Amino acid sequence: MASTILATVHCGSGNNEGTPGGTGGGTSTSTTTGTDGTGGTGGTGDTGGDGGAGGAECTTADKAIRLGKLVNPEDGSVINQAIVVIHDDRISYVGADETQIPCGASIIDWSAFTGLPGLVDAHVHFSYQTDQEPGTLPWARTTWLHNNNPYKLVDLARGAAVATLKTGVTTAIDKGARDYVINTLRAEIAAGELNGPRIFTAYGGISNYKFPSSVPAEELTGWVHLQKLRGADLVKVWADRCSDQTLDCVPTFTFDELKLLVDTSHQEGLPIAIHAYHGDTAKLAILAGPDSVEHPEGIDAVDCGTMIDKGTIYVPTIDHNRYYNDNLAFFGYAPELEAQFDEYIQENLATATQAHQLGVQMAMGSDAVFTGFGQNTHELTWLVQAGMTPLEALRAATLHGAQSMGLQDEIGRVAVGYYADIIAVEGDPLTDVNVVINNVREVMMGGRVADF
């Protein structure tokens, strides 16, 4: 990352940056550099306040970022020579008015770059880690670490959190995690002890462990209630069971069961995401009305219309199958699976293309596992291949990811009242999505600049 230049705005002798004067009815706006600070007295009344007569210092913990440009992903508008003021972990001003910089604020100089909202990765799994012990395979190794060396598993997850933040992802939605792993990461990130994204989690999620038998309604609702009591931010449901050796999937819940899970989650105030790889499962999931549906290919125009009507976000996760295909030996997959992965990727891409053409809102989700962290934003290349402009892909990586969690008033924008999640990129993200993927130069999450 490029070095950040910090300075402080001082209200010294005759340089009162618009600090209020006294009670005599005037407000000092002078920037005169005269010998005794004539701008420091307030109107005709008493001596001015902070930065008043004769060069008094003022202090604040607020920060101000200077950016060459700031892009709004909602409409593509750009503020040149932008200023963003941060109070605690929130944004208090966005614009280009220098006088809005609080007296004594620390200045972060990113004026060589273009600012964007921190990105949202709508689908990750921080608990899936391997130390790559020779002779082991990732899926078996992560279970071994869980049972034998959980401290090592947590440490590997810490590295994944750092790698994720480096990509500009300041919010990650973990859709299936071990609680001791994710709770540790969240606590350390919140305390400023670890560089990582803001994490929302579904903990272990819900699957039909009795499959092919059905699950009683009382047990289904109980699983949702348990997620609520554990402190989950959302509910994750695995609606089909898939083989990583054949890529075949079978549904594991009926429509009525999925609808009960969706309704119960919403009654508990929790968003719900449903994993459904293939079209037959996805149709059931979409009809149930979740907040997001993960992965599917093979959905049709009717399904797309239902998603639009119900406000369901589509998280296609196309790139994660590219990741598996690029690492067949690492996962111990047979070489002949390469052709099947290629076929699935093309089906997934075709589905995303149709969904985009019909107006379905999509979110960027990497489904990052193991060594895939640090590649979180590669999904953007597939979204552009699906027909999105760079601006539309940027929306998928910000606004729509936030919307899938009901967080559209908290994250995904650089706006007053939002979390101070801001990244600086080199280049024009409105003309080339690779700028977002490859040229992240600075990252702020919750008002803290990451030091990598």
TrEMBL record:
GO molecular function, one term: hydrolase activity, acting on carbon-nitrogen (but not peptide) bonds
Record InterPro entries: Amidohydro-rel, Metal-dep_hydrolase_composite, Metal_Hydrolase, Metallo-dep_Hydrolase
Recorded superkingdom: Bacteria
Gene3D superfamilies referenced in this protein's UniProt entry, alphabetically: Metal-dependent hydrolases, Urease, subunit C, domain 1
All copies of domain Amidohydrolase-related, residue ranges: 116-449
Entries under Pfam families matching the protein: Amidohydro_1
Region entry Disordered, spans: 11-55
Alphabetical UniProt keywords: Hydrolase
Gly residues bias: start-end ranges: 36-55
PANTHER family: ALPHA-D-RIBOSE 1-METHYLPHOSPHONATE 5-TRIPHOSPHATE DIPHOSPHATASE (PTHR43135:SF3)
Name of this chain's protein: Amidohydrolase
